[in-house]
Amino acid sequence: MSKTNVEAGTLPQDDRPSEFSLDVEERSIADGVRSWVINLRSGNPGALPSVLGLVVLGLIFMQVSSQFLTKYNLGNIPGQGAYIAVTALGLVFVLLLGEIDLSAATAGGTCAVVAAVAVSAGNLHTGLPTFMYWCLLGGMLICIGLAAWLRTYTAAVVIAVGLVLVVTNLTQHLILALIAAVCIGTAIGVFNGYLVAKVGIPSFVVTLALFLAWQGVEQFGLKGQPVNTTRYDLWHNLTYGNLSVLWSWIFIVVVVGGYAAYTLWASLSAKRAGLARDGVDLVLARAGIIALVAVVVGLFASVNRNTNIYRVIEGVPVPAVIAIVLMIGCTIALTKTTWGRHLYATGGNIEAARRAGIDVVRMKVNAFTLCSAFGALGGIMLASSQSSASLDLGAGNALLFSVAAAVIGGTSLFGGRGKPRDAIIGALVITIIPNGLGLRASIGPQWQQVITGIVLLLAAAIDAVSRKRAARR
After folding, report:
1. Can the keyword GTP-binding be found in this entry's annotation (predicted)?
2. Strands 388-389 and 227-228
3. What is this structure's pTM?
């Protein structure tokens, strides 16, 4: 065919160079399964190892004790592991950047201690040692300035709210005291992020130092006397409370219905726009699986789990509701916002993210801020679980279990890969181990440490091997 014909535009339509076209593929159920298999073979197992771990542990503990699968025991698991799940949710943000926060649990414990002192003494100024009270006010003021300077304006507003609550002594009211505790946790996160992202101190060193320091601060704040939290129904029910049967079903319908409606709307919107999408069959299949699991949970929660005839325990446990709601919020933030995409990009390749115009310093500060805020929530949950704000709240295994939960669930220690659901699944694994072992008196507590360590090592090994396998492809 001559050059003249080409220039004149008389080429047949099929012989002309094709123009760029959008990907309009509609993924069916078979395509979804095929994509999952490809990800698995390419070194991205997702939550599969942790789910298989749950199944294996469940089968083992069924043999260890006939009490493991009883309604009463299974109903206790959310309360036993809620503080781990909540703290691990915050750690996911930091781990996505390839960083670590070893101070999350003790920082959260310190925040819970401040809230406990505030409501028990009725006045933080008199309840805390004088120098600690003024250090708290000064530290929050400094962190407001740091947050504004680093352009984390939301954090600055949250800390300012906490400062107002403390100064006006509104923290004598329990709900406001717990809000102030989260605000203080936010201030701690801004400080951590500043030291890591701006000063340049390795996160391991910064948070290890503060892990030790916050334990001392807790003892200063409590003046050597723990505060009983069972006196406050709201605080106690964060771990031991249950929704009514009616509200349990409402919660299940809202969560499952919301997921189904959103994913179906997203599929239909993408179809109208001519974009790649999950087919309606795939969307409905996923929603159906989730609905089936939710119905089973709902039926289980609707019956009395207590063997004591004088007290009825039924309904979805409150700690499970808290963990699920927080997981949904974190998932939306990470997958449906520009901020979330920037966080993943920064964790995947920090230099490429910087060259693309992403404010890497701000992303790191945001991640540490969220981590400590969630740590404060975790500390509040831990105080509820232990029925007191103790002198070593958040020390010991609390942090280690939370990090282990995120990693075991599937969040990579190398950054760039992980989901909030990982924290929930990993927390279940971590919680089931002592729960199952504790049902057999002849098995010593030392086995808990050994088995937890082995499970964590296996999770880290799977992460490392999968990354090498992905790099070779």
Report:
1. no
2. antiparallel
3. 0.88
